[in-house]
Design a protein that fits this description.
This protein is α/β, with parallel strands linked by helices. The chain is built from 15 helices and 22 strands. The strands form four sheets. The protein has a six-stranded parallel sheet, sandwiched between helices. Helix 9 links the parallel strand 12 and strand 13. The longest helix has 13 residues.
Length: about 450
């Protein structure tokens, strides 16, 4: 696929590297800053053009009329540039265009239709997507992270093993058999992250302390499964949000109806006034510095079930998160914008990290795969992709037992939705036309996986 990316800041740079690494894509990156382009070109096989993406001359030089996809991902402050670039790319002949926005108003149903009529195929707002992911992660607070598939009938959850875990030094096959026979729970461990490496596990893999395991199970089996793995169950009743950013504001709105108490702390008096006018009165707004431990103690942080750190500074988010853990908060989520800091944050004790760039890249990356991909997501601690496919009529994977196909070694099928029935995939499972399938795949294996479902 031929793709033009406008904007070489962190979202565009990460997306260019991701698409180049996946193979089979010709990537052109446009940006007015030569140094940013050179930085990406050093590690990715791409074409770079130094120029203004809203210039017709620049777009024509990039061959916009001959590409399959145009993506405008300049920073949020340059929303107007993204919209102008995308509209021009469409008018100049690009069949599919995408633009990053920073205005929630644009994403209402009626306004989306307005932009579609103008020619923009997809608008995305990374902060809104991140807020939704944070809110979703609080639904299953026993796991460090959780994703829903097929309206929640299948759950993909993340569990970090500490020194007290009952499955340390046990083989995967023995753990699976014991839990299935003792608790009548069916599940599948689709990946293990160990020392920064993602492993698609075999039956003889032994679990080690500090492993992060990714497991698929049915919705009704999740809590008993987590208990059997020694995971403490937690309900997000009292939540403190450090930072009145757009993410913090949107998270508060999403979780307020289902939580007992929500507090937001922000150092800007003006921001606090805006939040108090916009948010429900049940949400308490506090003007103060999230780095002030005395303030956090005074506001009852030790009684909170969850703390979410979403200021506009990644270092503040990490340090505030670490301080929250030291004050006894069971679960801490942090917005970490610098991708290089993600592993550091987790090593320092942060339970869940959120990165808008990875989330945005996943949404766009889906557009480069077959139309049988219904969603693609990332989870922290792994570079793997979680894909949801629909089995096409006549596809190679249909009507064959999974154990009998040469599925890519860097990927594994975790669960299947067939009509109203959900079940865990095993070797004898045969996929049928129109099944919805959850696949856990490393980036290198994703193009090969895609071919099986076409």
């Amino acid at each position: 696929m031929k793709i033009i990316i406008a904007g070489a800041c962190e979202v565009g740079s990460h997306l260019a590297k991701l698409l180049a690494a996946s193979g089979g894509n010709d990537i052109t990156l446009i940006d007015p800053a030569e140094d940013r382009l050179e930085s990406v070109a050093e590690t990715a096989d791409i074409i770079t053009i130094c120029g203004d993406s809203s210039s017709i001359k620049t777009l024509q030089e990039a061959g916009v009329s001959k590409v399959d996809l145009f993506v405008a991902v300049h920073p949020a402050s340059q929303q107007h540039l993204n919209l102008a670039s995308a509209l021009l790319a469409k008018k100049l002949g690009c069949p599919k265009v995408v633009a990053r926005v920073s205005n929630e108003e644009y994403l209402s149903y009626d306004n989306r239709i307005l932009f579609t009529d103008m020619g923009i195929d997809l608008l995305f707002y990374p902060e809104q997507i991140a807020a939704q992911e944070i809110a979703n992660s609080l639904k299953n607070a026993g796991a460090s992270e959780s994703l829903d598939f097929a309206r929640g009938r299948l759950q993909l959850s993340v569990v970090k093993l500490d020194a007290t875990s009952p499955i340390l030094d046990a083989k995967l096959i023995d753990v699976s058999r014991e839990i299935a026979s003792k608790y009548d729970i069916h599940f599948r461990i689709v990946a293990v992250s160990r020392m920064g490496e993602t492993i698609i596990p075999g039956p003889d893999l032994k679990f080690k302390e500090k492993d992060t395991i990714y497991l698929v199970t049915l919705r009704e089996s999740l809590e008993p499964l987590l208990r059997s793995l020694g995971v403490m169950m937690l309900r997000a009743r009292r939540v403190m949000i450090l930072g009145g950013s757009n993410i913090g504001r949107m998270v508060a709105k999403l979780i307020a109806p289902t939580t007992q108490e929500v507090k937001i702390i922000d150092r800007s008096r003006d921001v606090c006034l805006e939040l108090s006018e916009e948010l429900p009165s049940s949400i308490k707004i506090i003007n103060g510095d999230a780095r002030n431990t005395d303030l956090l103690i005074e506001e009852g942080i030790s009684n909170c079930d969850v703390v979410i750190t979403v200021t506009d500074n990644a270092e503040t988010n990490i340090l505030s998160g670490v301080a929250s853990k030291s004050l006894g908060v069971p679960k801490v989520l942090a917005d970490v914008e610098n991708i290089e800091y993600l592993r550091l944050a987790e090593e320092m004790g942060i339970d869940t990290t959120i990165n808008r760039k990875l989330i945005a890249a996943a949404k766009i990356f889906r557009l480069t795969l077959s139309d049988k991909v219904k969603s693609i997501q990332y989870m922290n601690g792994t570079n793997a992709e979680i894909l949801e496919y629909v089995v096409a009529e006549g596809s190679e994977i249909a009507d064959k037992a999974l154990k009998d196909i040469d599925f890519p070694s860097g990927a594994i099928i975790g669960g299947v939705i067939r009509g109203t029935e959900a079940f865990i995939a095993v070797g004898s499972t045969q996929l049928k036309t129109y099944d919805r399938v959850m696949v856990f795949s490393t980036p290198a294996a994703t193009p090969a996986v895609d071919k099986w479902f076409k």
